[in-house]
Design goal:
19% strand, 9-stranded antiparallel β-sheet, Alpha-Beta Plaits, single chain, Multidrug efflux transporter AcrB transmembrane fold, 1054 residues, alpha+beta
Length: 1054
C-alpha cells in the first residue's frame, strides 16, 4: 500500500485520470439509476383466497378455512399460518421461513388445495398467490356530473390507453362498481308456471352458449372447418328472448315474460366521489424494477394529449402524485446539503489552506460518484432511504479527507515540503484510515441480510455507505496526496485576499495554541485523576441509559412519516340501520366543504383560497366502510398543523355510535406493519379466551395515551339460522335441500360469467330485490319436496336470530381474538405499551388460564423481529470489528478502548433529543451509526498517534497527552464540520424534513459528545490500560513492527 500511495502521488496523470474516471462513471450512472419513493420490500407471504358468495362467516370458516388449514399442516417452511373468514370469502396467509423457496412452497400449497374434495360446490376456484405489495404512485381521476355508465366507459378507455404505454404496467380501478345482469323471478310466477328457480337457472345456462364443438375436414371448402355453437346472450334484450317454457298448446313463454331483467351496477349501495362529483379512480402502481419519474411523466404526457378528446363535462386529472413529494424531499435534501457543504468549506478555509479545503470538499464528489456506480452495478435505486444513506455517510467521508489532508498539511509545515511530505503524511495515516473504513463497512454489511420489512429497507443504506467509503478511501490515499504534493500553494494577487490570509493564519494558529496551552494541560490533569475521570463518564453513560430503558426519554420505533394526505376511515357495525353509511358519508363530506367546514375555516384564517389549501378530496363508501382522503398543499402544510385539521374534522363529524373502528391519520408509513397497538390472544377454550381479553382490555385503560380500545368481537353481527321442524321428515326434506332452495331464492345463482366491454359480468338469477329485503317473503316461500310437491316454509322450518362474529380469525389453527387500540405516540409508543402488558397482566394470565398466549401484531411484531435480527448481527459485527482492529493494531485491549467511545455517542444522541424535544426512533439509531463511524475514525487516529510516540521512547503518560495535542485539530475539525454541515437540515421546518431530523440530531449531537470522549476519556482509558499492562505483562501489546520509525507523528500542528 505504501508503494501504491507513493506511485500515485508522484504520477499526476494517473491520479487525475483515476479521479476523472470515477467522476465520469458517477455522472453516467446517475441518470441511469431508477427512482422510487421507498425501496421495494420483498414479501415472504403466500395468500390462499377462496370466494364463497352468499355464505356467512361461520359457514366460510367451517367449510373452507378450517379444511385449508388442516390440509396445509406439515407443509415445509411455513412459520406462521393465519386466517380470516368473512362474508363470502376466506383468506389464509402463510408466512414462510427466511430463505424458503417461495415458488416451491406455492406449488406444494396449490397441489394440496387442489386435492381438497370437501369444499362446497358453489365456491369460486381457490387462488394461491405470492403477496407482492405494489406502491400506488399516481392516481388518474375520471369525474363529472353524469351517469355511472358514461364514467365507466371513459375510465376503461383511459385504462387501456395507459396500459399501452411502455412505462405503465399495473393499474387498479376504484370507484367502478361491478356490472351485473340480474334476472329476477318472483315466487308467485314460479308457482304459477310450476317451475323452480333451479330450472330457470338451468334454462339460461343451456340456452346462452358460445363453444367450439370440434372441427371437420372439407376438401370442397378448402381445408379444415371449425364447428362452433354460438348463441350466447350479452345484453338484456337477448336474455329476454330466451325460451323459458314451451306449453302443450305450442305457446312459448320467454324469460322476459316472467322475469325482470336488470342490466346495471351492483345493488349494494356504492359511493365514490371526488370534490363531491361522481368519479372513478385509477391507481397507477409501480412494478418491481420500474422508475417512478418515468411512470408519472408518461401518465401526465398522455393526459395532456388526450384531454381534448374526452366527452364534454368529463374531467380527467391526476391526484396523489408521489413524484411531487419525491422531488420536494430531494430538493430539500440537496439544497440543505449544498448549504452545509458551503459552511463546511468556509470552516475548513478558516483553519486550513484554501487549496487543501477545496480538495477535501471535492473528495465528497468523488466518493458520491463512486457510490452512484456501485448502486447502478447492483441495481439499487435513488429513493428516500438511499438519500438517507448519502446523508449518513457524508460526515464519515469528510472525516477521512480532513484527517489525511490535515496530516499532510502538518507534515509539510514541519519541514517535509512538497511531494515528500504528501507521501509521508498519507503513508503514516494509511493504517488507521483503512481500518476505520473497513470497520464501518463491516458495521453495515449485516443490513444486507435483514429480512424484516424495516431491515430490508435499510439495505439501500448499506450499499450507499459501503460504496461511498470505498471510493473515499481511494480518494484519500491515491488522489488527495497528489493534489497536495505541490510546493506552491494557491495564491491571489489581491490585497483583500492577503488580508484574509493573514486573518486565516491567526485563526489557525489560535486552534494550535489552544491545543498546546489549554487542552494539553487539561488532559494532563485528567490523566492524573484518570480513575475519577473515567468514573464520571461511565456514571453519565449509566444514568442516561437507565433513563432511556425506564422510559424517561420518549421513544417511538417507527415514527410516522408525515404526508400531505389526511385519511379518515370509519368501519360500521353490521347491525347498523339501513342508510347509516350514506348519512355518515355525507356528514364527513359536509365537515370539509360545507358551511362552517374545514375549507371555510382555514380560508379565513390563512387568507389563501380553499382550492390552494386543499386541492382535492375524495370519498368512498361501500358496505360497512367509509373512506375519505383530504389533500393538503405544500402551502397549507407550511402554515397549518395537520393535527389541528384532523381534530377539527373529527369534532365536526362527532361521535359515531354505529362505528366499530375509526382511523384518522396523515402518515405515509402506517401500513400493514405500521399503525398502533395490536396483538392476538389465544387460550384453550373460548370462555377462558373471552375472560382473558376482558381483563387485558381493563388493564389497557390504565395506560396513559391509549384510546379507542376494542377487540374483534366488537364486529358482531346477526344472522338468521334455519332449522327443520319434526314434520319435515314426513316430506323427505333435509336441512341441505331446504338451505339449497332458500339460497337459490335469496342469494341466487351465478349461472354464467360473460366478457363484455372489457369486464367480466355475472349473470345472476334470484328473487326480486323487494322480496329479498322482506322477512315475510321467506315465511311465505314454498319448499319443493323430492316428490315434486310444495310445502309452505313455516310448516317444515323455523328460524331464530343469533349473534355471529363477522370476521373470525385464527392463527396456527387456534381461535384468537385480536385486541387493538389507538394511541397518542407522543405519550406512549406501541412497544412501550406492549411491554407494560407483557411484564404485568400477561404474566398473571399465563399462570391462571390454560393455554393463554399472546402473539404481537403490527408495529410491535415488526419491532420485535427487527431487534431480534439486529441483536444477532450486532454481536457478529462487534466480534468482526474487534478482530479487525486487534489484527491491525496488534493489540487485544486497544480495540476495546476504541469501541468504548461508541456507546457515549448514544448518550450524546439522547441529550440532543432532549434538547430538541423529540422521541428516539429507528432513524435516530441510523444517525447514531454514522456518529459511530466518525468516532471510531477519530479514536483510531488518536491511538495510532499515541502508539507511535510510545515507540519513539516517550513515557506513557507524556505520549498520551502529546498524542491528544497532536491530533486535537483533526479531531475537532471533523466534529465541527459534521455538526455545521448538518445544521441546515436540523433547522429545516418543512414537513418533508420531519422524519430526517431525528437522524441528523443523533449524528450531530452524538459526534459532539463523542469528541469529548475521544479527547478526554479515551486517553484516560489508555493510561489505565498501560498501568495494568505494566503489572500484568500478558496484557501488553505486541511490538508495533509495522509502525514507521521515522520521527514524530506527522499530523502535528506545529
Amino acid at each position: 500500500m505504501r508503494n501504491l500511495i507513493a506511485w500515485f502521488a508522484d504520477n499526476h496523470v494517473a491520479a487525475n485520470l483515476l479521479m476523472l474516471l470515477i467522476i465520469i462513471g458517477g455522472v453516467v450512472s446517475l441518470p441511469l439509476l431508477r427512482t422510487e419513493v421507498f425501496p421495494v420490500v420483498s414479501s415472504d407471504e403466500i395468500i390462499v383466497s377462496v370466494s364463497y358468495l352468499g355464505a356467512g362467516p361461520a359457514e366460510v370458516e367451517t367449510n373452507i378455512t378450517i379444511p385449508i388449514e388442516e390440509t396445509l399442516k406439515g407443509v415445509a417452511n411455513i412459520k406462521k399460518m393465519s386466517s380470516r373468514s368473512g362474508r363470502g370469502s376466506s383468506r389464509v396467509t402463510l408466512q414462510l421461513d427466511h430463505g424458503a423457496n417461495i415458488q416451491i412452497v406455492m406449488d406444494e400449497v396449490q397441489s394440496r388445495i387442489d386435492g381438497i374434495r370437501a369444499f362446497p360446490r358453489d365456491i369460486e376456484p381457490p387462488r394461491v398467490r405470492h403477496n407482492i405489495q405494489n406502491d400506488d404512485i399516481i392516481d388518474v381521476i375520471v369525474s363529472g356530473d353524469t351517469d355511472q355508465k358514461t364514467l365507466a366507459n371513459v375510465a376503461r378507455r383511459v385504462k387501456a390507453d395507459l396500459l399501452a404505454l411502455p412505462d405503465v404496467t399495473l393499474i387498479s380501478i376504484r370507484g367502478m362498481p361491478p356490472t351485473t345482469i340480474s334476472i329476477e323471478v318472483s315466487e308467485f310466477d314460479l308457482r304459477r308456471l310450476g317451475i323452480s328457480m333451479a330450472s330457470v337457472a338451468k334454462v339460461i345456462s343451456d340456452s346462452s352458449v358460445d363453444i367450439s364443438v370440434g372441427s371437420i375436414r372439407s376438401t370442397g371448402m378448402g381445408g379444415t372447418l371449425q364447428i362452433r355453437a354460438e348463441g350466447r346472450a350479452y345484453y338484456e334484450e337477448e336474455f329476454a328472448e330466451i325460451t323459458l317454457l314451451q306449453q302443450s298448446n305450442g305457446t312459448r313463454i320467454k324469460l322476459g315474460d316472467v322475469a325482470t331483467i336488470k342490466d346495471g351496477i351492483s345493488e349494494r349501495s356504492f359511493i365514490f366521489r371526488s370534490k363531491g362529483k361522481p368519479s372513478i379512480t385509477m391507481e397507477t402502481q409501480l412494478s418491481p424494477g420500474q422508475d417512478v419519474l418515468k411512470l408519472t411523466s408518461a401518465v401526465k404526457n398522455y393526459l395532456e394529449v388526450a384531454e381534448p378528446t374526452f366527452p364534454q363535462g368529463i374531467t380527467v386529472t391526476t391526484w396523489r402524485d408521489d413524484s411531487v413529494e419525491f422531488y420536494q424531499r430531494l430538493e430539500m435534501l440537496i439544497s440543505n446539503s449544498i448549504t452545509g457543504l458551503i459552511l463546511v468549506f468556509i470552516l475548513l478555509v478558516m483553519f486550513l489552506r484554501l487549496d487543501l479545503a477545496l480538495w477535501v470538499t471535492f473528495g465528497i464528489v468523488i466518493a458520491f460518484s463512486g457510490a452512484f456506480m456501485v448502486m447502478k452495478f447492483f441495481d439499487f435505486s435513488i429513493n428516500q432511504i438511499s438519500l438517507f444513506g448519502f446523508l449518513l455517510v457524508l460526515g464519515i467521508v469528510v472525516d477521512d479527507a480532513i484527517v489525511v489532508g490535515e496530516g499532510i498539511h502538518a507534515t509539510q509545515r514541519r519541514g517535509r515540503k512538497g511531494l515528500k511530505g504528501a507521501i509521508y503524511g498519507a503513508q503514516s495515516l494509511s493504517l488507521p484510515i483503512i481500518l476505520a473504513v473497513f470497520t464501518t463497512i463491516l458495521a453495515v454489511v449485516p443490513l444486507l441480510m435483514f429480512q424484516s420489512e424495516t431491515g430490508q429497507q435499510a439495505r439501500d443504506i448499506a450499499v450507499v455507505v459501503s460504496g461511498a467509503l470505498i471510493f473515499s478511501l481511494v480518494e484519500c490515499l491515491l488522489i488527495l496526496p497528489c493534489h497536495l504534493s505541490g510546493t506552491k500553494h494557491f495564491e491571489l494577487p489581491y490585497a483583500w485576499y492577503q488580508k484574509f490570509l493573514k486573518f486565516q493564519r491567526k485563526v489557525a494558529q489560535w486552534l494550535i495554541d489552544f491545543a498546546r496551552y489549554k487542552y494539553k494541560p487539561f488532559i494532563e490533569k485528567c490523566l492524573r485523576a484518570k480513575y475519577l475521570t473515567a468514573a464520571i463518564f461511565f456514571s453519565v453513560l449509566i444514568l442516561f441509559t437507565t433513563a432511556y430503558v425506564l422510559g424517561f426519554i420518549r421513544s417511538s420505533f417507527n415514527p410516522e412519516i408525515p404526508s400531505n394526505m389526511i385519511r379518515y376511515s370509519i368501519e360500521l357495525s353490521e347491525t347498523a340501520p339501513e342508510g347509516t353509511h350514506e348519512r355518515i358519508h355525507d356528514k364527513m363530506v359536509e365537515a370539509i366543504g360545507g358551511p362552517g367546514g374545514i375549507e371555510e375555516e382555514y380560508e379565513e384564517k390563512t387568507g389563501l383560497a380553499r382550492n390552494i389549501l386543499f386541492p382535492n378530496y375524495s370519498s368512498f363508501a361501500f358496505g360497512t366502510r367509509i373512506f375519505m382522503n383530504l389533500e393538503m398543499s405544500s402551502e397549507a402544510m407550511a402554515v397549518i398543523d395537520a393535527e389541528d385539521v384532523m381534530n377539527g374534522w373529527q369534532e365536526r363529524v362527532g361521535e359515531v355510535p354505529e362505528a366499530v373502528e375509526v382511523t384518522l391519520r396523515n402518515s405515509r408509513n402506517t401500513g400493514r406493519r405500521g399503525g398502533d397497538l395490536s396483538f392476538y390472544v389465544s387460550a384453550s377454550n373460548d370462555s377462558d379466551l373471552e375472560a382473558a381479553v376482558e381483563r387485558v382490555k381493563l388493564e389497557m385503560r390504565d395506560i396513559q395515551g391509549l384510546t379507542q380500545i376494542y377487540d374483534s368481537r366488537d364486529r358482531l353481527g346477526q344472522e338468521l339460522r334455519l332449522s327443520l321442524k319434526p314434520e319435515a321428515e314426513h316430506y323427505g326434506l333435509t336441512l341441505s335441500t331446504l338451505s339449497d332452495q332458500v339460497r337459490l331464492g335469496f342469494y341466487g345463482r351465478i349461472v354464467q360469467r360473460i366478457p363484455r366491454d372489457g369486464e367480466t359480468i355475472d349473470i345472476h338469477v334470484r328473487y326480486p330485490l323487494a322480496a329479498r329485503q322482506n322477512l315475510n317473503a321467506l315465511r311465505e316461500m314454498y319448499i319443493k319436496t323430492p316428490e315434486g310437491g310444495e310445502i309452505p316454509f313455516n310448516m317444515v322450518a323455523e328460524m331464530d336470530y343469533a349473534p355471529v362474529l363477522n370476521s373470525p380469525e385464527r392463527i396456527n389453527g387456534q381461535n384468537i381474538i385480536k385486541v387493538s387500540a389507538r394511541m397518542n405516540k407522543n405519550i406512549v409508543s406501541p412497544y412501550e405499551a406492549f411491554l407494560y402488558l407483557e411484564n404485568g397482566i400477561f404474566i398473571d394470565l399465563k399462570s391462571e388460564i390454560s393455554g393463554f398466549a399472546v402473539i404481537p401484531d403490527g408495529q410491535v411484531e415488526e419491532q420485535a423481529i427487527f431487534f431480534g435480527e439486529i441483536t444477532f448481527y450486532l454481536s457478529l459485527v462487534l466480534l468482526a470489528i474487534y478482530a479487525l482492529l486487534a489484527i491491525g493494531l496488534r493489540s487485544y485491549i486497544e480495540p476495546i478502548i476504541i469501541l468504548t467511545a461508541v456507546p457515549f455517542g448514544f448518550v450524546g444522541a439522547l441529550i440532543g433529543h432532549l434538547i430538541i424535544d423529540m422521541p428516539v426512533s429507528l432513524y435516530s439509531f441510523l444517525g447514531l451509526f454514522a456518529a459511530s463511524g466518525v468516532v471510531i475514525n477519530d479514536n483510531l487516529v488518536l491511538v495510532h498517534c499515541i502508539k507511535k510516540l510510545k515507540k519513539e521512547g516517550m513515557k506513557f503518560t507524556e505520549a498520551i497527552a502529546e498524542g491528544g495535542r497532536m491530533r486535537f485539530r483533526a479531531i475537532v475539525l471533523t466534529s465541527i464540520t459534521t455538526f455545521v454541515g448538518l445544521v441546515p437540515i436540523m433547522l429545516e421546518t418543512s414537513y418533508q424534513a420531519i422524519f430526517i431530523i431525528p437522524m441528523v440530531v443523533s449524528l450531530t449531537f452524538g459526534v459532539l459528545f463523542a469528541t469529548l470522549i475521544t479527547l478526554v476519556l479515551v486517553p484516560c482509558l489508555y493510561d489505565i490500560k498501560d498501568g495494568f499492562a505494566e503489572k500484568l505483562s500478558f496484557l501488553k501489546s505486541t511490538d508495533d513492527r509495522g509502525v514507521d520509525e521515522e520521527g514524530k507523528e506527522v499530523g502535528a500542528a506545529e
